[in-house]
Every structure is written in C-alpha cells, then in structure tokens.
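Form 12-C: Joint structure prediction
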Amino acid sequence: MSKTDKRDEVVRAALELIAELGFHGAPMAMIAERAGVGAGTIYRYFENKDVLIAELFREVEEKIYADLLEGYSTKNPIRERFLHLGTALLRYYIANPLEFRYLEQFYNSPFGVAHRRSKLLGSKEGCYFFRELFEEAVSQQVMKDLPLVLLFDLAFGPLFAAARDHILGFVTLDDLLIARIIEACWDGVKR
Amino acid sequence: MSKTDKRDEVVRAALELIAELGFHGAPMAMIAERAGVGAGTIYRYFENKDVLIAELFREVEEKIYADLLEGYSTKNPIRERFLHLGTALLRYYIANPLEFRYLEQFYNSPFGVAHRRSKLLGSKEGCYFFRELFEEAVSQQVMKDLPLVLLFDLAFGPLFAAARDHILGFVTLDDLLIARIIEACWDGVKR
Amino acid sequence: MSKTDKRDEVVRAALELIAELGFHGAPMAMIAERAGVGAGTIYRYFENKDVLIAELFREVEEKIYADLLEGYSTKNPIRERFLHLGTALLRYYIANPLEFRYLEQFYNSPFGVAHRRSKLLGSKEGCYFFRELFEEAVSQQVMKDLPLVLLFDLAFGPLFAAARDHILGFVTLDDLLIARIIEACWDGVKR
Amino acid sequence: MSKTDKRDEVVRAALELIAELGFHGAPMAMIAERAGVGAGTIYRYFENKDVLIAELFREVEEKIYADLLEGYSTKNPIRERFLHLGTALLRYYIANPLEFRYLEQFYNSPFGVAHRRSKLLGSKEGCYFFRELFEEAVSQQVMKDLPLVLLFDLAFGPLFAAARDHILGFVTLDDLLIARIIEACWDGVKR
DNA sequence: GATGAATGAGCGTTCATTCAT
DNA sequence: CATGAATGAACGCTCATTCAT
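Section 2 - Result
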C-alpha cells in the first residue's frame, strides 16, 4: 500500500463514519480501524482531528465544484446557467450521499460557521461562479433585488432540504422531480 | 423552589447552553450549575441526557406551534394563511435565537432524523395545520403538484436558512425583508 | 472516607510515586490506583497534573519551613542560627526521604527553575528567614561577601548532596556526622 | 557522511535537545531530524533511547576528565591540586552549558542513581584522580576526616549549584567569583 | 427528594521502536 | 546500510451517570 493509499483510506473512512455518526460519533480510533491503519498513522497525514475534518471538507468541496463546472458556460443565459448548477448540485448530492451528509455535519458546526463567514466576507474563491451568476442576475434585474445571502438561501435552502429528504428516504427523486425542484428554486429567486 | 421550578430551570439552562455550545459542549454538570441544581437532580426529571434533549425539543416545538396559530384561521385564503405561518415562523426564530439554534442542533443529529422520520411516516400531530394547509393547497391546484415533503422543503428551506443568516449576522432582517422572503417562499411553492 | 481523606490519599500517593519514579514515571492512573480512588477523582481536587505537582511542592515546603522554625529565634547568634537551620533541614530530609526525593524531582524540572526564579527575583515569602539570616550575616561581616545566591549554594549544596547520599545508602548519617557536615557548610560560608 | 559522522551527529543532536528540553521533551524523531539522519538510523548505533542517553553521558564525562587533567600534576601540593580541579570543573561547566544541563538531567534520573552507585561501590575508573587526591588529603590530615562521599558532597555540591545558577542567569560568574567559590569549597573540606 | 463527590470508560494525541523498501 | 512510514500501547483528561449521605 503506497503512502497516498493510506491517506486516501483515512479520508474515505473519515467521510463514511462522520457522515453516518457525526464528528463526535466517529473517534479517531474508529476511523483508523475502518481505514485499516494504526491510530497513530492518521497523525502523519493530518495534524489533528480538526485538520482532518477541514481538509476532508476542502476535498469534497473541490470535487463538487469541478463537477458543477462541467458543461457550465458563462455565455449561456442566466436562467439556463442557474438550472444547470442547481440540477448538477442536486444530482451530485443524490449520487454521493456520504459526501452530502458530511457537508451537513460540517456546515452545522463551528467549522461551518467560520467557513461561511470567511466565504461571505473575504473572497473565498472556488464558488466564485455562484456569486458571479447571482450578481449578474441581480444587476440585470432577472433575480429579485435582495441581498446575495438571501438569494443563496432561497436558491439552495430547498435544494439542500430536498437532497436530505431523498437520502433519508422520505422521497425518491427522479429526473423529473429534480427538474421540477430546480424550477421551483428558480421561481423563488426570479423576479 | 418547587419541583416544577427545578425542572423548568434545567430546561432553560439546557436550552441556553446547548444552543450556544452544542450538545457536546454542554456537559450535564454545566447544565446543572447554570440551572442552580445538583447534577444528580437532573436525573430525577430526565432519565438521561438524550431524554432531556428530546423533551426540550418537544417543548420548543410546542411553543412555536402555539405562537404560529395565534391569529391563524383556516377560513382565510390559502396564500394568506401561508404568508401568516411563514412570517410568524421567521419572526419567531429571529425573536428567539436560542431556540432556533437549539432546533438546528437537534435537526442535525440522530434525534432529528428519527424525529423527522416518525413525523412523516406516522402522523405526528402538532404541525397538522401545515399538512392540512399544504394538502388543501395542492388539491385546489394553488400549489405545485409535488410530494408534500418537497413542498415543505421549498417553503421552509429558505426560511430556515434566512433565519440562520440573520442570527449569525450575515444579514439583518427587517419587516420588509421578512415579507419579501416569505413572498419568495410562496413563489417557490405556488403554481 | 471524607472528602479531605481522598485528597490526602491522592497527595500521599503522588508523593510516593513521583519520589520513586519521577514525574514521567508516575501516570495519573497509577497515582489514582495507589490512592485507592478513580482516575477522574484526582481532577476534583487538582485541575491537572501540573497543578497537583505544584501544590504538592507547596505542601512539602510548608511542612519543612514549619519544622525549621521550631526552636528558631532571631535573637540567637548568627552561627548558632545557621547551625540550627542546617541541622534541622538535613534531619528533616533524612527523616522524610520521600519528600526529599520529591523536592529533587521538582527542583530539577521547569517548575523548579521557575520557582527558583520567582523566589530570587520577587520576594517569595516562606523562606524569608534564610534570606534574613544570610543578609544579616553578610552585613555583619560574619559571612563571606558574596552574592546571596552563591552563599545559598555554598551552604545548601553540600547539605542537599549529603542528604541524597544518605538516602541512596552511600553513607549513613548519624548525629555526629550531621553535626560535622553542617559545621563544614558553615566553614564554607563563614568569613 | 561516514558511519562515525552519523553517530557523532546523533550524539550532538541528543545533547542539544535533551539539555534544552529534557529526556521526555526530546523524542527520538526530533533527535534524528536535528542530526540529519533517519529515525531508524539511530538504532543502528544505539540499541535504544536509554543506551543513547547512557553513552552520551559517558562521552561527556570523558571529555570533562580530559579537560580537568590538562595541566594537572600529582606532584603539586594538595590544596593547589584541589583548586586546579575545582576551577577547571566550574569553568568547564560554564563554558559548556549544554553539557552541564545534560549532566543535570542525567544525574537526576534513575540512570544517575545507578551510575553513582556503581561508581562508589565498584571502582569506576575515570575520576580516579579525584579519589586519589581526596584520600591523600585525608590521610595527610589536610582535609576533614569524613567519608569520601561526604567530602565530595562538600566540595562539589556548591560548585554544581553555582554553575547552575550562573547558567540560569541568577548570578554571573567572572574569574574572581570563580576563584572565591573554589576557595570557599576548599574552606568546606579543609581541616 | 436533592445533592455533588466519585467513577471509569472513552477520548484525542504522542512517541519509542520496527521493518519493508 | 539507511530510511521514515507505520504502529499501538500509554498518556492526560472529560463527562454521563450513580449512589451514599
């Protein structure tokens, strides 16, 4: 097993266990066991548990952004771009329920609040395209004239909630439902 | 201090501390101290910490439902009823940030998932009026023809997100903004 | 067993084990076991291991100072007072080898250095009578005109070393030898 | 880097780090890094950490003895020889504070006790000249008629203490003070 | 009933040592 | 030979829960 393999196993195990059990339900020893490594090994790759959690978040976020941008073009009309991003995001969550539940854990924690704060205040790149799209949409009077934060809430609040309900088995989202949900999100933000 | 007083003090202390510090940041001993009772006393009223957490949730939920129903009449038009409930809920969250943050903690935990499951599958009363309203709205073709769960997501996802952003200081919601958010939620669910 | 009893048991166990095995050879769990209490119990009385170590030092020091001052009078001639203190100190160490070895551990550690520093710079009371005696002796030209620190080194360096050698069994100190050692210490500092 | 070079680098690094941080503050990995070798490499030269510690002590001691004997002649008068050795030793400590602090760590540890025991009981060579000098001094009635161990304590206890206080910055020893300290040590042991 | 001292399993983390490369 | 990634026992410490008072 190569060096990178061990690291990846730790990341995978942490994702699985934290998604299932939460940060506090997933002790380092359990993560190590699931990863098939010694407890001390984790600390070769991650300074401590917090760093592991933050790094795992970064990796998940990166994967998602890469996925969202596939086939995304700023030349398309705003509505189309919105539908593209929304659909891709919801699909991604549904296809990767562990990652989704991990994100839930992360956002709902001191890490998440700090992250959200720095993303809003500073110019945390990565999701620049969301901000770009929404600012353009507002300036062109295609979206409601509301603070960006609230537009995000209107657009992604339902999306996140729907993904969760699908993953928990409260509803089963097929292509049609996905499309209708994203349309409804658009209805919420559009002028 | 009467028996009921002690119990209430424990509930209040638990709400404050868990809202501020999370379940894991609020040890029983700390709750006891804040409540002004002995650590063992909590166990006279609540079998264990999980039960305290669940019971506290029940009380918060009850208070909220009572608040929402003030001035609510099933005789009013559907849209008006929706706006009433949404506005009241958002206002409640903003006015009671500790309770809101407690709910966040609760929903984002194994408790929350179990609770949501039992509410959807069984017919957990309490929020019957939401279900009534939405079912009526769907059957009268005023709302989109989507599963109830998704309509809830569309309606309350943004609301919850907006409340969180206000409480975290990312935006400041005044009466006008609140009205516009609830209108936007309506845009999301309406046909 | 009363509250104080447990605390005392912890102190006694810590003294024994640290004296025998050093700070690092005496884990908290071992101290707890020797004291006949649970591991967590120690933390009711001492915030952490460092505090336990420091507090234990304080108690030992206090006991020693009390012992030294028995029968000590500043009205006696300087030489007599010196012999009194030196003899009492050496006797104390010999009679309380665990405490002596604990002090050794303590002085030879970051704690000890910090303590020594604050004692020399600030006016850490407790051993004021040593300083008083030596300063008086210097000003009356009975002791060598050297910095106080060095006079302490000349007086107590041999004393400490002799106590250690007795405790380790390299020599057996009886009353006569004790007297001759203290005389020799006096020879070292006297003018 | 030759085999011997690596070994020497390990010894040097261990000296530095243990002197600064103590045995427990200087992990093998840290020593390896400072020495510029792999962690496993240390174990080629030293069976384990204890052996490294003991070996390092032996080397330091050897260096010191070599230094002391420079210009030392058994033909000189006893007092002069005493002053020579004492002065050279104190100067050595002051000029090599890392080695001094290492010795402190070593003496104050199970190693030190064992070493001292074997040196007194067996006839650990190396410092034979100290023993020779003192035995001669006693038999010629120049030194007090005390067990050898105690004479060592009287002579070197203050010396060691003074070196420590200089290194910790509690006093600054210049040539004059050094001379006076060694004189005072002589006062302590002389008849 | 009410208390809070006591408990000990369990946590995150370290580090001397090993061994495949 | 030399390496350093891997190990896992052991550490200091926390906290939900119990129970003698």
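Section 3 - Comments
Residues 49-69 of chain D form the longest helix (21 residues). DSSP finds ten helices and no strands in chain D.
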